[in-house]
Structure formats: C-alpha cells, structure tokens
Amino acid sequence: MAESILKNRYAVVSGSSRGIGREIAIRLARSGADIMLHGGHCQDALDQTLEEVTALGVNVNTICADLSTESGQLQLMDAATCGGRVPDIWVNNAGVDTLTGPLATVDYYTKLARLWEVDVVATIRLSRLVGGLMQKAGNGSIINIGWDQVDWGMEGDSGEIFCATKGAVMAFTRSLAKTLSPIVRVNCIAPGWIKTKWGETAPDDWQQRAIGESLLRRWGTAQDVAEAALFLASSGSAFITGQSIAVNGGRR
Fold first, then answer.
1. What is the pLDDT of residues 40-91, one digit of tens each?
2. Between the CA atoms of 178, 182, 183 and 188, what dihedral angle is there, to the nearest 10 degrees?
3. Domain region containing 177
4. CB 233 within 8 A of CB 227
5. For tag attachment on the chain, is the N or C end more exposed, with fewer CB atoms within 10 Å?
6. What is the pTM of this model?
7. CA 114/CA 100 separation, integer angstroms
C-alpha cells in the first residue's frame, strides 16, 4: 500500500523501465505519487515496472520514447502533460549505457555523442520545458542525475566521457535553479558506485575498488539513490535547491 508523503502529487521519471529509474519510480509511487513511467526502447521491461507500480494503488501511465532525438523528447513531454496536468516532480534519470550491451564496443566519440544527446541535451530541454510549466503552476521539483567523480575526475575513456557529460548536467542544475527560483527547486543526485547491471558482473578488481572507495565499505544500491530522490521530491527538502547530493557511502 502507498504511503501519503507524496499523496496527490504527480511524478515523471525518465528511464524508469529498469535500474535506478525503476527504483525511483517505485519509491515515489509507494509514497503516494501518481507516476508517468518512461522507457527508451524496451517495452517488456517497462511493462514489468508498470505492474509493480500499479500494485501500489496509484495512477500510472507509460510511454516509450527515444530521448536521443528532439522529437522523442517532445513526445515524452506531450505524454506527461496530456490532459493539462503539470508534473509536480520531474526526474531526469534516462541515460545511455555505454558499459554493457551494443554500445560497449563502439568507438569513443560515438559513445560521447550518444551520452551528450540523452544525458545532457534531453535533460536540458525537458527541464526547461517542464520548469516553465511548474513556474506557472506555482511549484515543482526537478531532479537530475550526475556523478560523484565529476569533481576530481577518473582515468580512462569512460571516466573522461562520464565526467564531461555528467559535469555538464551538474553545472546546468546550478544555473537552472537560479533561473527558476524561488518557485521551482532544481537539484541533482550524484551517485557513486551503484551496483546496477555493470556492477553485477564487474571484474574482481573493480568490485574491490568500489567497496574500498566507500567509507561504508559496500556498493551502493538503486534503492539508496531512490531514497535520496524521495527526499528531494518531498517537502522535507523545501529549503534545498541548486545542490548536488552525493550518494556514495562517503568517499575515501
């Protein structure tokens, strides 16, 4: 059964067919929010999340849209505002997986371009569009997803492109918070080592690195990130905006 902290609120979570996005959507729904679920391509995974959210007794809708294109971004926005309801909470979680699956073997610049399209451009366009609607409605919380290693960097191809793209998201977050203040709050979650698909099969040296770099000596979970999202979506964070909150167990 749903709780009531977000009762009568409406949340859109992009990239919520699996992983961190799925857990955020489920956590917000469990707290009473109506939900718009989004997936890029995998309808089966989206249907599984839909089943879980529906069981919580809130209103829920779904859409598949390719956020690497402007038309896909506008498709999501149109679906999210169909009927005239303005989202109270918008989570830009959708991102490109360049570590597993088909994109794992493409070249550096193809990965960079795909990450830029989805993680950066889609976040910017959708945030600006929904932010304007939230301003007119008189309230709103936008939550973006960054990366905790942006501030000090990480070696290697993946480290370079993740820092470049997530650094852009975190910088944009701070600026948009100023643009939309004092009506709409804009914050960012910066996850550390979170055990999603790649982490489940990562080589032993990476497993040890993930655990060793956390003061709490464990991998983070998608649920850990979802709890942070709930906080930023709720009135408990009413005096917090323009911030990037690290969810990383404390960094050594």
1. 877 888 999 999 999 999 999 999 999 999 999 999 999 999 999 999 999 9
2. 40
3. 10-247
4. no
5. N
6. 0.95
7. 14
